Request: fold
Amino acid sequence: MNMETTNSREQLFESLYQKAFPAACRFIRKMGGDLNEARDIFQDSLIILYEKKLNDQNGVISSDINYILGVCRNLWFQRHRENTRLVSLDGVPEPKMAQEEKVSEDLLKYVETAGKKCMELLKAFYYDKLNMKQLASGFGFSGERSATAQKFKCLEKVRNSIKEKSLVKGDFYE
Reply:
């Protein structure tokens, strides 16, 4: 079928909906999907067919219906593979807050040794998620590079404070 005219495209799509959608819908329902998923996948397969017909001058597709149903199956399996990679965290126990609070308190002591301005700068960057441009304007630096340099200096003060006490990461955890 010629895909150049709007009328011929509409006729092709209507015909495919009537002939192929029920079979695609049955397949997707059988595989655990619902009507909305079947519609989405069928729409995607129609777009793929349309693009294939526009780009394929040799007419390799022998049956539009079979092509659509094959694409629907492939799209369903692809979507199913993506969804099975996701793992539910419902059964995972929550971390103990007491340990997190202790680590935060210990680290906070060392951040405080860097000074009030450094503490505020690091808090703004790491907890408030401000970018360098926002830090520069909020803390009165001349530019983003100055803010980056100052943040690095603050982190170095904290690292040096920890090194002076000869602490290692394990000292923060029980």
The radius of gyration is 30 Å. The chain has a mean pLDDT of 79. The chain has two domains: 6-85, 97-172. The longest helix spans residues 6-30.
